[in-house]
Amino acid sequence: MAERPEDLNLPNAVITRIIKDALPEGVNVSKEARSAISRAASVFVLYATSCANNFAVKSKRKTLSGNDVLSAVEEMEFQQLLAPLRESLDAYRRDLKGRKEASEQRRKDKETPRRDAGDEGDTGPADGSVGDEPATDEAAADEGAAEEAAADEAAADEGD
Fold first, then answer.
1. Phi and psi (nearest 5°) for 120?
2. Name one GO cellular component term (predicted).
């Protein structure tokens, strides 16, 4: 828990931005009013968190869920906030699900390399070699024998 009461305040820049967005242009808010709004917002967040925690404890959980927060807001009798909160929570869950599916798809695409005949998806020689090095000792022996045979042929052609 916070050691000093000032630690419980929300950042002034955030409060100022929220106030500006909520009010019409040209409306000025005094420093004292911003401070009072900030304190009220902090108290609301602490109270909502405490109520949500009570729901989590009743369910024998240590982690607060979105449903705990919705139940807390309902218990605090802020029914006008329930619909927008549910919509935001649903949108968040849809976004999270979409990100998870996209991440899984990228992971699957990485795991299964595409192999198109002769296209840029070709992963290299069929024997598994990399660059100029053969993949196995057996392949190296085959390659050495082929080079030796080619050298013998070239020498025989020169001798003719």
1. -65, -10
2. epsilon DNA polymerase complex
Give the three-class secondary structure for 54: helix
CA of residue 4 relative to chain centroid, distance: 34
For 64-122, give the DSSP string: --HHHHHHHHHHTT-HHHHHHHHHHHHHHHHHHHHHHHHHHHHHHHHHS----TTSTT-
Q: What is the DSSP letter of 10?
A: P
What pLDDT score does 12 carry? Answer: 87
Q: Is 7 helix (H, G, I), strand (E, B) or coil?
A: helix
Could you tell me if 76 and 70 are in contact, meaning their C-beta atoms sit under 8 angstroms apart?
no
The CA distances from residue 87 to 15, 39, 82, in Å, are 23, 27, 9
- pLDDT, tens digit, 9 for 90 and up, residues 110-132: 887 765 545 555 555 555 555 55
R_g of the chain computed on alpha carbons: 34
Q: Which residue has the tokens 């990100």?
A: 99
Q: What whole-number distance in Å separates Cα of residue 136 and Cα of residue 146?
A: 15
